[in-house]
Amino acid sequence: GLGEDKVNFASINESSASINFINDQGETYYEVIDQSLASSRTIRLSDVELVKFADQSNYVDINSYINSAPTSINLDNLTVYENSLGANIGIISGTDPDGDQLTYSVTGADAAMFVVAGTTLSFASGHAADMETKSAYTITLAASDGALTYNKEFTIAVNDINEIPTDITLTSTS
After folding, report:
1. For every residue of the chain, which 3-state class applies, written as one string?
2. 33-73: pLDDT as tens digits
3. Which pTM does this prediction carry?
4. Rounded to an integer, what distance in angstroms lies between the CA atom of residue 149 and that of residue 70?
5. Pairing verdict, β 50-53 and 79-81
6. Which of 32, 35, 44 is nearest to 15 (CA)?
């Protein structure tokens, strides 16, 4: 509306509230979640610029409370040599506009072959790439700030190595 639209939360403290900006199929609103109760309650707000919580003396711009989703995720290596059980593939990094610490996970069709430990992507224990079986793996890496997530698909190419022959047959010719 016109002017400054304000909301005063008389019973919610700033420390127990989280505010998310929601865009649901073109309908935008703020979702205020009060986590101070045994079961949290959610309040939906539209067209609000300023809020004041019970433990504050002044109104604050609602956008200063908004948690923004991570905006990127990267993998510093997209190739791996075959036949190396549990091989490290690369280091994952991401960006969160709020500076929140990110945690990473792997999903997708080939996810069972992989594991994320901190920021390192590796083949899971007992798993290795095999060029003769599959030349590339497709995975989705996720970066989460604890509330919101950013996903990106990656393709990891398998480098072939010269393998020692395992089956030799000799025949006699006269």
Report:
1. CCCCCEEEECCCCHHHEEEEEEEECCEEEEEEEECCCCCCEEEEECCCCEEEECCCCCCEEHHHHECCCCCEEEECCCEEECCCCCCEEEEEEEECCCCCCCEEEEECCCHHHEEEECCEEEECCCCCCCCCCCCEEEEEEEEECCCCEEEEEEEEEEECCCCCCCCCCCCCCC
2. 877 766 677 777 777 777 777 777 787 887 777 788 899 99
3. 0.69
4. 6
5. unpaired
6. 35
Residue pair 121/92 in contact by the 8 Å Cβ criterion:
yes
Backbone φ, ψ for residue 157 (5° rounding): -85, 145
In sequence order, which residues have a C-beta less than 8 Å from that of residue 132 and are 6 or more positions away? 82
- With a cut of 80, say whether residue 93 has pLDDT above it: yes
Q: How far is it, in rounded angstroms, from Cα 139 to Cα 75? A: 11
- Contacts of residue 80, defined as CB under 8 A and 6 or more positions apart, other chains included, come to 87, 89, 123, 129, 156, 157, 158, 159
Q: Answer whether 60's CB lies under 8 Å from 50's CB.
A: yes
One-letter amino acid of 3 = G
